[in-house]
Amino acid sequence: MSSVTNNNLKGWRLLATPFVFSLLLLLAPLLLMLTMSFWTQDYLTLDRTFTLNNYEEALTQPVYQMLFKRSLFISLSVTLLTILIAFPVAYYISFYGGSKKTLWIFLVTIPFWTSYLLRMFLWKVILGYNGVLNSLLLWLEVITEPLTVILYNSNAVILALTHGWAPFAILPIFVSLEKIDRSLLEASRDLGDGATQQFFRVVLPLAMPGVVAAGLIVFIPTIGEYITPKLVGGTDGLMIANMIQVQFSKANNAPLGAALSVSSLIIVTSISLIFVIYNRRLLRKY
Amino acid sequence: MNNNTQQLPIVQLKNVEKSFGAVKAVDSVSLNIGQGDFFSLLGPSGCGKTTLLRLIAGFEKPEAGQIIIDSKEMIDVEPNHRPTNMVFQNYAIFPHLNVEENVGYGLTKQGVGKHKKLEMVNDILGLVGLTGLNARSASALSGGQRQRVALARALILKPKVLLLDEPLSALDKKLREQMQIELRELQKAVGITFILVTHDQEEALTMSDKIAVMFDGGVSQIASPKELYDHPTSKQVASFIGNMNFFKADIVSIDKKNIELNSVTLGQVVLSKVQFPIEPKSGSVEIGIRPEMLAMSKKSTNSIKNSCEARIDEISFFGDSTWYKVKFLLTDEISIVSEMHSQERVEWKLGDKVTVSWRPASFVGFI
Amino acid sequence: MLNNKNFLKLFVLIALIFFYSPALLLPIFAFNESQIISFPVEGFSLRWFEVLLSEKTLHGALKNSLFVALSSAAFGTFLGVLTARANSRYEFFGKKPTLSFILIPLVIPELIIGVALLIVLMQLGLSLSLWTVILGHTLLIMPFSTLVMMSAFNNFDQSVEEASMDLGETAFGTFRRIIIPMVSPGLIASFIIGFTISLDEFMIAFFLTGTEPTLPVYIWAQFRFPVKLPSVMALGTIMLIFSLVLLTLSEYFRRKIPKTESSRIV
């Protein structure tokens, strides 16, 4: 038996179980979800005739359009804010962390391991009318009336999500900053660059892959966020995931829910692909 | 060296072939290795020597041909049942076990009792110079120590053949030279056949009883180190082992014993037929001579037979010898001359005019 | 600006305060006498912890979560080991695409996974239960386990396995004496990571759980009742400490993965 056939057999013997598992629990459900998006549901009965009605509804009805737009807006804002916070932190640790780098990174990743649900819930507690922030400010007599602008709208969602995801953005940026050959920085100084120029001409371009990775790590999950908008979004801050969940419970319209899910998936994948292609173009330059 | 004309060779390879996809790594190789020999497989990277070793060990299966070890055909025999043991290039020391556990690893399967095992381990540790390091963890060993553990681990099982895959390549020069001597002595002490793979021709020349020189999946020549050095059978082998200066020459005449040649640089050179591994018929050939077989003198060419004039172009100092790049005045051809340092030597300088001379018997001829 | 070390350091410290301070509220209000989560704090009390002790539904949810987490971590690690071993040892047809496929759950919102699985279960007429949650969590954990185990397997090279065979051991003996001990820290780390992910996972559990809630689903239900909030804070405090312990353990084991001479350090 040639080594090639032997390898194929051995490799697939191992891979068979996980692969089949993924086929059954990932591919099949996604395909079924796609199929269902073309059906109609009337209360509890399912009409299996092919129709594009759900997509028409999802893409033309103002309520869904608004939700998609808002979800995109929130998600992209969060992505931008997390990167703006994460980059200086990653920069500091990479360039000034010295021997304590691992300790810094460890400290930064700790929040990842505590309950996400609880962390988002805490924001509800913090931002509430009678919540921690207001009661603290009142108690310290910084304000006389509780603030209302901070809860039950998109801002609250953006704030809470930024808090939740910023640590995730730090790691990929840190990794790509670490990869930058320090002698390149010395070379650029030697050739006359000032600190700002060096940053924009050397550091930032080389750190871009990490920035793009961080962007994806934050963008993809946040656009499908359910918990945070439900907890702190009120009616003005709800996102598409909340509407999808409604279709599967109260509204009893699984096909529409499926169509909305497929649409969300397409939106997420397209934007991610744009990010990734941009990233590849950047890498090819270097 | 063992006289193995009465005994059967311990390893016989007959027309062994192995390919990886489109690449033919081992191309119909046949050779015999005598019992008790220190045998080396020598060649540049990619020549197939490691593949050949792994075929003997059983980690690769040949597509054609036979591998016979100790008179038994190995075609269906797995590595763990072959009478061979291997020292891997990176030593493959088990990192989660200490020295004693590493060395005694193979004895567990054999069902050796604890007492006996400890005794055997200590014996072999003494043999390789690692006495007392039983409890040392694998990660705390130096490169040289890891190598000895790998050796001990294999030798304790008393294989018929010990296979060594470039065992010294990871060591620094001084340690390497020391280990070369130690390995040779170890082999003589235990009397086991060693098959060593290396790309370092100096290493092979120092340690081996016999060397098989390999290029591109095939064996070019099998001979003792001296034979290989003095009488290489091809230009490829001649260039790979040591250094050689080559000159083009045309055949002027051939008689019963000798061949008269004319070289533009050297003039007339008469060689005996035995100096050609393959007897030439007519036309041009190449003749080669080792750097140390060329002599330099201040005397004029008229007073020395077989000489011509050259100028010293470059000088390289090697501690115990000096190498000179000389340019022959007649043709601008360049050769290397080496001189061992001795009490009476001349201090040559760059640009000096010298008379380079040789003995015709020192040449080897290739067609 | 960026090369001003002190300015950066200040930024980092502020950022860290921003990251950590909400969590600090948990112990503050867990021990707070008052029913209402707001300042000023009214005095030290352990009553909310006592409430937790008597909450039967909480205990049930905790048991469910432990069951789900242990099972999912076990299955997920098992499948991850198989995938990782195949990918780090052999070259085979379709190697890259299948690996990418198995890693997909990492880049799809959990919502979509939950929805898709729900649809399948609905169509198959299967009822939701803890087992359906286990299926979903296993799917989620598998990519993480694969990545951890690939790092473990890549950290030692084939010659160690060959050496074991060369010295007389069978394939199974090699697996038992060499491979398992060398990757066991990776196995443990992978299990702990999977366990933690499952324990805290909300979305998929929310969609796929039947009548028996997991801990996050239970907690979610509590959010509606202001009177329950302080005990949630108490519960959160306990969970916080527990996560930190788990995290330290997992990192400890991940670092213990042994490396051989010619291994690549991840």
Question: In a few lines, what is going on in this structure?
Answer:
The complex is a heterotrimer of chains A (286), B (367) and C (266). Chain B has 367 residues and is of the alpha+beta class. Chain B is 23% helix and 34% strand.
Q: Quick one: CATH superfamily of chain A? A: MetI-like
Cα end-to-end separation of chain C: 33 Å
CATH architecture of chain C: Orthogonal Bundle
- The name CATH uses for the topology of chain A is MetI-like fold
Features:
heterotrimer; A: 286 residues; mainly alpha; MetI-like fold; two-stranded antiparallel ribbon; globular; B: 367 residues; alpha+beta; Rossmann fold; OB fold (Dihydrolipoamide Acetyltransferase, E2P); six-stranded mixed beta sheet; five-stranded antiparallel beta sheet; 9 helices
Descriptive report:
The complex is a heterotrimer of chains A (286), B (367) and C (266). With 286 residues, chain A is an all-alpha fold. Chain A contains 12 helices and 2 strands. In chain A, strand 1 and strand 2 (45-47) form a beta hairpin. Chain B is an alpha+beta fold. The model of chain B has no long low-confidence stretch (mean pLDDT 91). Chain B is elongated and about 80 Å long. In chain B, helix 4 (114-128) packs across helix 5 (143-155). Residues 261-266 of chain C have low confidence and may be disordered. Chains A and C meet through helix 1, helix 3, helix 4, helix 5 and helix 6 of A and helix 1, helix 3, helix 4, helix 5 and helix 6 of C.
Topology:
The complex is a heterotrimer of chains A (286), B (367) and C (266).
Chain A: H1 3-36, E1 40-42, E2 45-47, H2 53-60, H3 62-96, H4 101-109, H5 116-127, H6 132-139, H7 154-178, H8 182-190, H9 195-223, H10 227-232, H11 240-248, H12 254-285
Antiparallel strand pairs in A: 1-2
Chain B: E1 11-20, E2 23-33, E3 38-42, H1 49-57, E4 64-69, E5 72-73, E6 84-87, H2 99-103, H3 105-109, H4 114-128, H5 143-155, E7 161-165, H6 173-190, E8 193-198, H7 201-207, E9 210-215, E10 218-223, H8 225-230, H9 235-240, E11 245-254, E12 258-263, E13 267-272, E14 284-289, E15 295-297, E16 307-317, E17 321-328, E18 334-340, E19 353-357, E20 364-366
Parallel strand pairs in B: 3-8, 3-9, 6-7, 7-8
Antiparallel strand pairs in B: 1-2, 1-4, 4-5, 9-10, 11-12, 11-14, 12-13, 14-20, 15-19, 16-17, 16-19, 17-18
Helix pairs in contact in B: 4-5
Chain C: H1 5-30, H2 47-54, H3 56-89, H4 95-103, H5 110-124, H6 130-154, H7 158-166, H8 171-200, H9 203-208, H10 215-222, H11 229-255
